Structure to design on (106 residues):
């Protein structure tokens, strides 16, 4: 069974073609293809806590360092952590992947 992504759980409508994508823009989590498969999600849909510029609960969350505390209290984060258990890709794993991608793009 496929695992749920953050935009499905939160029903934010900011995925490509989503109900609020035109009005608010597409969330960067939904388009981070380099993170596809992390925690069994589509793009960064199951590691959203490590991606800056998300728009959770009506507020732009901004950079990773400023948003992580609120993300750790998020019910979606708790669900992913429970489902993935010891295989959970942490914020450190995600940031390392993003750094490698950035370095490869140079």
């Amino acid at each position: 069974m496929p695992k749920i992504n953050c935009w499905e759980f939160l029903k934010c409508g900011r995925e490509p073609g989503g109900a609020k994508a035109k009005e608010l823009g597409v969330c960067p989590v939904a388009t981070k293809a380099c993170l596809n498969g992390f925690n069994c999600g589509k793009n960064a849909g199951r590691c959203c806590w490590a991606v800056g510029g998300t728009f959770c609960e009506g507020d732009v969350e901004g950079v990773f360092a400023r948003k992580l505390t609120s993300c750790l209290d998020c019910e979606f984060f708790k669900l992913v952590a429970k489902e993935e258990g010891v295989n959970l890709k942490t914020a450190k794993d995600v940031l390392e992947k993003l750094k490698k991608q950035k370095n490869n793009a140079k």
Remarks:
- Residues 91-105 form the longest helix (15 residues).
- The CA atoms of residues 88 and 97 lie 14 Å apart.
- Residues 6-105 form one domain.
- The first strand starts at residue 55 and ends at 56.
